[in-house]
Amino acid sequence: MLKTVLSISGRPGLYRLVNRGKNMLIVESISTKKRTPAYAHDKVISLGDISIYTETDDVPLTDVLEAVKEKNGGQPVDIKAIGYDAAVREYFAEILPDFDRERVYTSDIKKLLTWYNLLLEGGITEFADKEASAPEVESAPESEEK
Question: What is the pTM of this model?
């Protein structure tokens, strides 16, 4: 689901990919529903391609957003109520206990929580792809007898 949700550097909010044009993307703001072009010189990244550093491995953003949703019961996070930087890091440690405290900055955590709130506001509540999370069952090719 998050493969079509984009973050564009220098622009506030999140965008949904609508169409591709020559040397540009047509994107729609999740919050305002306004469509605009994103050109080749804009730094565009899909939320599905982002992961969070941990002590052992990287965790996809989809898994982290699902953990935030589970912790908050599907409700938005009040970032200002959490408070100062150390409290934000403590809150995130409850969600992802083994996150790399040296490489994950407080600003990254606040951005992630802001994205979570924007996605909820835009009606996106399922972050993981259902096809990707379902186990794949391979069937053996049927042999024909003559």
Answer: 0.82
